[in-house]
Specification:
Blueprint: E1 3-7, E2 10-13, E3 18-25, E4 32-39, E5 46-52, E6 58-60, E7 68-73, E8 78-83, E9 92-100, E10 115-116, E11 120-125
Amino acid sequence: QLKLVESGGGSVQAGGSLRLSCAASGFRNNHNCMGWFRQAPGEGREGVAGIATDSGDTYYAESVKGRFTITQDAAKSTVYLQMNSLKPADTSIYYCAVLTGCTVIAGWNHHDIDVWGKGTPLSVSS
């Protein structure tokens, strides 16, 4: 059974930092793209950052470029999202996601995702 477990959400002040983690289990190989989406109340699910586990190719939403960094620990099947210079607009529920059979990331669309985590909330106050 494929499973994703997120952790690291919480409440911070604007300008602060936080790191999210997502641990994957049940996947037979590393030929996946893995990363994060977010969805605020009343909004659609937005691709935030993703990484192709074989190549290390990454994707970032324009709104987070220069502030967020996605990394992986392949041996642990875990990805991390380091979030710096947080803004109130970053407030959302963040969902880990995996697209299987993925080797490169040209985009990061929620319609393509095969497996979702349950989500972890982030609240950024001003």
